[in-house]
Amino acid sequence: MGEPYPKLTAHDLTRTFGRGPRAVDALGPLDLAVAPGEFACLVGPSGCGKSTLLRIAAGLLRPSTGTLEIHTSSVRPAAMIFQDYGIYDWKTVQANVRFGLDVGRVPRREANARAAEWLARMGLADFAHAYPAALSGGMRQRVAIARALAVEPELLLMDEPFAALDAQLRTILQDELLEITQALRTTTLFITHSLEEAIVLGDRVFVMSARPGRIIAEHRPPFPRPRTGDVRATPEFTALKSELWDLLRKEAVPA
Amino acid sequence: MTTIAPETRGPALVRRPGPHELHPVRTHRRRRALELSLAAAVPLLLVLLWQLAAVRGWIDERVYPAPSTILADGWDRAAAGDLWPDVWATLKRVLAGYAVGTAAGYLLGLLMGSLPLVRAALEPLLDALYVVPKLALLPVFLNMFGLGEGPQVALVAATVFFFVWISTMSAVMAVPDGHRDAGRVFGASPWQMFRHVLLPASLPAVLVGARIAAGVAVLVIVASEQIAATDGLGHLIFDSRALFQNDVMFIGIVCVAALGVLFSELVRFAGRLLTPWAPRDRGRGQA
Question: Which CATH class is domain B77-276?
Fold first, then answer.
């Protein structure tokens, strides 16, 4: 234990949906500790409760048993990036990025400045006054990332943020996210279907079992920080990917 | 455009741009002009046919006066100021009833859409009231408010209320959970959730309800003025029929039609201004 306290600790966490004979165990029991500044990736088959875990961390859902603890003094330490529906069609790009700040009652002048800074950083400055309907999928997701980071969260939760994008765009956005998160060192919980995404981005990669989701393996991709998307071409990358895929395949195929 | 090009290597299909691709602006302008002239020509043709039938004596001109007679008579009455008191009386009732009904329907729809307990408490009751023809409530309103403007305004308000209530409630319930989740994660208070998420997300559907209600408001006020009013366009129509002034009756009908179209177009226009993100306005107002 190099770090004093983990930023996020899940202990014996479970979640059940429904009740009586039709109850479904969606998650756990699950134990997890994420260090401050760590980028943790969770990979698992569909319906394994990955999103449930994230929603519990975000405070959108309560666990059925167990606890999830976030080491913070803030009431609202987390920002979340959704797969879709996240950004609002009725707000301009700038107003979307400013949303978290508006809700947090940051003065308009400062909020505009911070939003503008993030728009510039995400290459969206020219689209500040456009509505999201005029943007491509990749740009919409950049808006979502800017909106989440503009509130300077202590904990960043990402729920398959790139799942709706095409393969080329995913790679590009993965590289962009890699650059940003390595600069910010925000503690991140990142959920994905894609092993490649998890290995490129993560300090640690957790593999989850089929429902009810438990953690069945944990790996540290052997690439020092700061790294770039070039690690995809290394033999270690391919080796780790096939090792994790062997684990995941057993879970993804229904027994 | 597809043609067979005679090539030495044998026949080939060639796809080339058509007029719409070659001259996009001109083609679009012509198309718009055609649509507009069709929209104007069809009613105009029907009026001309009516005029012809009246002049030729195919229809009884005492019962169905010629459009030229109606127009001339309407012009005289408007110039003499005979028409405006009735138009104004109807307009006042519609606007007052519409304002009250929209506000009440929107508030209750919002509450019932976002709070399941309020919905459980009020939905069966309102569903039952919804199916009562609102005109049947006019006697009740007459008893409650006496003669005068009260019952007319109340009737319009009651009619408009149900349209706006139902469309607001279903629109609020249809806001995707993802939109609410994003607001909750950022810590939006109930008021912020309303202002930033529920209000704009439900607004397009609410405006559709409001526009339908605008048309129905005019419809209902005319019916109720025929029953229980001493002025207004509904009264004018019914009264002039009783006096066998069929041209005045038609003037009233034309006024009602114009009023209804104007009112619902006004609501539609306001809706466009209020929802600039809606796809139909894409490309406008953006750099």
Answer: mainly alpha
